[in-house]
Amino acid sequence: MSQAAADNALVALLFAVDPAGLGGVALRGRPGPVRDAFLALLRACLDPAAPVRRMPLNIAEGRLVGGLDIAATLRAGRPIAERGLLAQTDGGVVLVAMAERLPATIAAQLCATLDTGTVLTARDGIVSQSPARIGVVALDEGEDNTEPGADSGAGAGAGAGAGAGGDERPSPALLDRLAFRLNLSAGFDDDALEYDLDAVTQARTRLADITADDATLAALSATALALGVWSLRATLLALRVARAAAALAGRSAVAPPDAAIAARLVLAPRATRVPAAEEATPEQSPAPDDPPPDEAPPDEAAPNDQTPEPEAGDEPDDLPPEFPMGEIILSAAISAIPSGLLALLKTDLARSAGARSQGKSGALKKSGKRGRPAGIRRGAPGPNARLNLVETLRAAAPWQRLRASEAPQAGTQAPTKGCIQVRFDDFHVSRFRERTETTTIFAVDASGSAAATRLAEAKGAVELLLAECYIRRDTVAVVSFRGTTAEILLPPTRSLVRAKRSLSGLPGGGGTPLAAGLDAAEALAASVQRRGGTPVIVVLTDGKSNVGRNGLGGRAIAEAEALQSAAAIRRQNRAVLLVDTSTRPSPLAQALAASMSARYLPLPYVDAVRLTQAVQSLTPKSR
Predict the structure, then answer these.
(1) CA-to-CA distance for 243 and 221, rounded, in angstroms?
(2) pTM (whole model) above 0.90
(3) Residue 370 burial class via C-beta count within 10 angstroms: exposed 0-12, middle 13-18, buried 19 and up
(4) DSSP assignment, residue 263?
């Protein structure tokens, strides 16, 4: 078996030493004997008193964090609190099934629990805080599109956040909090490890006394920097893994082999670049086996041009000064980087950039509270699930005679005669489907002598797009900026009459407060997104900003603030189109489009029809 297969087994031992401190394992692989062998080894190494619970994909929020137990409350006639799964697993491990499809709300709750070690329940009139120091094993069953035969590297290579080629993957925030990322395509080999369960138990008791010096932390930090690992959590997790490896090896302090294991298992799967040879070994001296230079200066050459040979029994801990610990750790991490990792990373980034707008104009999406009815399902009512009373009573009706004959349980009151007894399994909720809505936000530069021409073009484009909105059920908004401020000229609407009335009275001329206009467009886009819509921003400007946010002139400051506002739009991952209205393509407008990651469209002779076609090519179509 390969080194990666042995490392997969080593991860189970290290994680069992400190489950809560290491966060967890992102385990990528289909169900099968390999995954079962890993989970079996993990269960065997964990503390026998540590609970291990499986979290289903469709778990309700109340079952996860706790809340009001509706069925028990109905039976008892008084509020009964339910202890959530996270609190029940305090000191143990949660197995997250199908983590690549985990809802964002559940992933956020797991992240908060991993950060604080507690779970806060504040729902259904119940407020409580319970300890929940847990470890997470995220079972990722997404497709792996790596090339056949490619080495998956240490820890089975790139985890779900790197080497996975499938579109579905666990939340990046959750992956950042898990120390290990394994891909079981490399196999599993616990026979290559010399261990016993008593050693793991002793390592758990010894872990609190393990120390690590500043040199180890500096070496891990330098390795993370060289590999392009920017998250500070990765370095801290690598340090905890090094301490766990030292405890497992019976040492009282972290040694270079322990730090090398941490770099191989934690930092290498997160690498976003491979350092060049001169960068990987910045000040490395010639190896002991290398011949001396042909022309060495007399005052620097060794006597008789000979270099002392190291003894055969030297261990890594006794390496001469020519081999700093940082180089050893970095070399171990580089050797574990999966082949083709960077190419896969670029492919994933390109896919993300091409699909940054996930809203589908006019498409149907699932909803729990509004829209067209789309069926009924069994489940408990909640903030995002509306109770279907008729189906609930219909499910409970056949069992009333049997339930009436049952003796009341201790602590509950006898049911009133004539009342319907409803159990948890009787609850049904309605499902709905609603159409998403795309809002096209025009940010129009109304300054300067050509303002009238630009406004006429914007008016024609808005009117043509509104005609499409009657069919696609989309909305249009207009933000204008001139003088010293920006204003929302037309809030999101589908009314053609209102759009014409709002645009007809807009004056032109004055300075160009481009930063204020972009800020106003982004604020409106954020408002649209909070309401569940999909915003698309169209900026019509020549990019020549000369008024800052404070309303004062100064072209240099105004242009710098405009680029800052553009960068803020890019960070929100908006779909943006910049229409350059200059007489010829402007470098300022091109730089602004690059800062926003916007599609650049130079239209010296722009007209409403061409602008409408460009906007429609940017807007997601309905299915």
Answers:
(1) 15
(2) no
(3) exposed
(4) I
